[in-house]
Model the fold of this input.
Amino acid sequence: MTENHPSQRPAESAPDRPTDRIARIELDEATILRRSETVENERQAALRDLEADNRFIPLRAVENGHKGPWSLHLAVVDGRLALTIRDADGADAGTIGLGLARFRRVVREYFAICDSYYNALRKASAQEIETLDMARRGIHDRATRQLLEALEDKVETDFDTARRLFTLICVLHIKA
Done:
């Protein structure tokens, strides 16, 4: 992707219009088998931040005459991430399906570094914690770029929105 691709607008860019955003997002609770307190806090922060500030334009829905702001329902169905979209009137605006196989490795890496980071918070030096935090952010950024590539030609969004969506994808990956 080029640096000027519309799905990679700078984080400081606000939605072009109030309709170019997610107004509500929910996760399929049946998909999630368990959550630790840390994961629950991350989920709540991602949802809160996403609903407060995001840029999201589902291209096919707009082409078909739907208008936002959008409501999203995220679920894992048959090994695929399903982003079910509803328009401002609550009408079904389609579903975007993304194969999750492409995210398995980076999700596994992200979980591993997060475990190391949270364990280090209890006993490691400030320098060790900072190193792990930088690694954690680096993996999260790489995964976000991967998600932006997967959403290309499906959704126009910015880096911060995709980053928060990746956090929610991780929550959906947690199994007992």
